[in-house]
Amino acid sequence: MRYYFTFIIAVLCLCFSALSYANTIKTLSVVDATQLINTNTECWYDNKRYSEGAVVQVHSVTLICAAKYPQHSNSQLMWLKLDKQGNLIYPKKPATITVN
């Protein structure tokens, strides 16, 4: 009787342990402001360094490491969005300057 009880407990433990395995989904971290604008000649994302021209997919947004000021040859690099056609989307500059 004692062996049957031990056997049933062991079978139940094995059944429940097999059900405890779950599919894990790898999530991508969101780019924060410190990663968008940097002062170096590389782009950083998820603690990894990327060079100019690197493309990263973040959820449904495609980012590319490109020159902050394209008219300068030694410009800083930053992450820029790509549109559906693959064109760079530069951030909009304010139309006026305000002084507090």
Automatic annotation (TrEMBL):
Q: Which UniProt keywords apply?
A: Signal
Keyword set includes Signal: yes
**Which N-terminal stretch is annotated as signal sequence?**
1-22
Quote the InterPro entries the UniProt record gives: DUF1496
What is the superkingdom listed in this entry's lineage? Answer: Bacteria
Identification of the protein by name:
DUF1496 domain-containing protein
List the lineage, top down.
Answer: Bacteria, Pseudomonadati, Pseudomonadota, Gammaproteobacteria, Alteromonadales
